[in-house]
Write a structure and sequence with these properties.
Number of helices of chain B: 1
Number of strands of chain A: 1
Number of helices of chain A: 5
Mean pLDDT of chain B: 87
CATH topology of chain A: Four Helix Bundle (Hemerythrin (Met), subunit A)
Helix content of chain B: under 10%
Number of strands of chain B: 6
Structural class of chain A: mainly alpha
Oligomer: heterodimer
Distance between the termini of chain A: 61 Å
Strand content of chain B: 35-45%
Order of helices and strands of chain A: EHHHHH
Number of domains of chain A: 1
Number of domains of chain B: 1
Strand content of chain A: under 5%
Structural class of chain B: mainly beta
Helix content of chain A: 55-70%
Chain lengths: 149, 107
């Protein structure tokens, strides 16, 4: 084949270390927050004179609260990674309210951490769903929203 | 404008940084020497010499044209980690642009 008709090979990829991002991490943590919130609200207080029952109650409630706070912080961390690492300035052109969405989602993580609010827990999940949709849309993929619980 | 004096060469594209316009493995045609007489325009897809790796050819879209004639290249892929382009290697001199990529509307 004449050299002038041979194909030229051109690179069209990234040559740096690729990060792996997935909003599922935030969603799972958010689900744990909502689950712990529901359990805390549903846990019935026993007879306060029954020391053994009270000990079990306080132990269970403490564990629920500890897990809720831990998962709320984890959810916030995962959201911040998406916000500051995955999304780039050019995404603001198509998502002008991107900063507000993440700022509000991070605030909801804080609210869920310090409160026992089923309303804020649901709002956090709604925020995670919105970010899920924005993320996969930015990658040009149609990934349905799912929940593990 | 297609100049009959320019050489049309096939180009095999490796990678998805130009997705969805050009996909991995797709063959496109390049008008070599197109910019010897014409000024690069925003929106053109170009074949150029990688500024940091002279043996590598890259295919990107012109995002901006600097006042000194150098261009800012960017991949079409919206995934911010899906393209190594002028965000990483900076502005590219016109002399490093080998030609303009020809894309049919239906490709």
């Amino acid at each position: 084949m004449d050299e002038q008709f041979e194909p030229i090979e051109a690179e069209a990829h990234c040559d740096g270390p690729c990060g792996v991002y997935d909003p599922a991490s935030a969603r799972i943590a958010g689900e744990a927050v909502q689950s712990m919130t529901k359990k805390m609200l549903a846990l019935e207080c026993p007879d306060t004179n029954d020391s053994a029952s009270m000990a079990a109650y306080l132990n269970t409630m403490s564990r629920y609260a500890s897990i809720k706070e831990e998962e709320a912080q984890k959810c916030k961390d995962e959201l911040l990674v998406l916000w500051t690492d995955f999304f780039k300035p050019q995404h603001l052109e198509s998502i002008p309210n991107l900063h507000d969405i993440f700022w509000n989602a991070a605030k909801l993580c804080s609210a869920c951490k310090v409160e026992v609010s089923s309303v804020h827990a649901q709002e956090l999940m709604d925020a995670c769903e919105e970010i899920h949709n924005l993320f996969w849309s930015a990658k040009g993929l149609d990934v349905p929203w799912i929940r593990a619980s | 404008m297609l100049d009959s004096s320019n050489l049309i060469r096939p180009v095999i594209v490796n990678g998805n940084s130009m997705w969805p316009t050009i996909t991995d493995g797709q063959q496109v045609m390049c008008e070599i020497g197109y910019y010897e007489t014409l000024t690069p325009c925003i929106g053109d897809i170009v074949l150029c010499i990688h500024p940091l790796k002279p043996s590598v050819r890259v295919i990107k879209r012109i995002k901006e044209v600097n006042s000194d004639g150098r261009v800012f290249l960017e991949g079409d892929n919206p995934d911010p980690i899906g393209s190594t382009d002028s965000h990483a290697f900076g502005l590219v001199a016109k002399e490093q642009i080998m030609g303009r990529i020809l894309i049919s509307p239906n490709s």
